[in-house]
Amino acid sequence: MQENNEDNSLEVHCRKDMKLSRWEGLEVLGEGTFSKVILATSLISDEVSYSEGHLVEQHLKVLPIESSPEKKKCDKLVAVKICEYGTKDNNEPNNLTEISAKREIDILKDINHPSIVRLKAWNIEATRVILILDYCPGGDLLKVASEYRDVLILQLLRRIFAELVAAVEYLHARKIVHCDIKLENILVNLTYHELEYRHDWSKYPFSVVTLTDFGLSQRIDDNEKLTIRCGSDDYAAPEVIMGQPYDGRATDAWSLGVLLYALLESRLPFDPIPNISQNHRPCSRKSHLIARVEWCWVKYAKLKNQLKSDPDDTSRHSIESAMQITEGLLKRARDRWSLSQIAGTEWVKNAIQIEGGIKFRDEE
Fold it and tell me: Protein kinase domain location, by residue (predicted)?
């Protein structure tokens, strides 16, 4: 791929049959050691279409936000992920970054689910990989859970979890395991004000969240065990922490359990318990607590003992169901609930009641 120095444009290969268009950069959304994500807009130009499967060239123009006065008139917004694994002067690639970026492309090319990020276009160069992905205006779920906790009413939380269970089941059915499920890798498709509006979330027609970041994902055989330790320790299952061969489907399920606990309790299950003096806190390291599956309810500890006092209270029944699912997932591998068991529970199965299923956000 060649870069045009005059207009600072980049050519990328489209995933599907698309029109020739220009991507204009608006602002940098995030930046790490080897990668950055840019908000960009698709500006419609030549109405040229191509046959199925043909790779089409598009242009990405990355500009400072100040030079883009038409931001509010954007036809379409996308997130452009640029992974750098070498430089033009010193072409010694960072192998892990290169492998991760290319793996992400390989996986995303075969995925089409409303609650999983879509790869719209990509390009692989000698020193970097460029991915054009869905843009999700609500930020990640960690930010929402931390800064906008008030919008995460139980019905919305239930809807979010049900979407994620369906998305991960979709992956597992295609022999793909994510291996890095966490709040930071769940993007929210709605803004704070849209979340604040009290929808009937069970009937909201479009996806609310998007599972993203497939750099650590793996393709696996039916009975294959993985051995590579990857992902965040906070979300790692006991068998991963202990260095045992593990089933990626079961560890994905564990990570969903950690995520659900975090949404309910506003803390991670193996973090130090708040409002307890240092003398009364467990002295074990976090990894030891995970390996022994030693966790407890804090916010809902008292509620758990009161739930049966009013069997007709639907909100308490919903909380109890969420707690039971969490407890079923945060178990040792031999006792852990499978995703099919979770999907079959009333709390998950009835969380989405949309004829024909959830729609992609860009569907009419």
Answer: 23-348
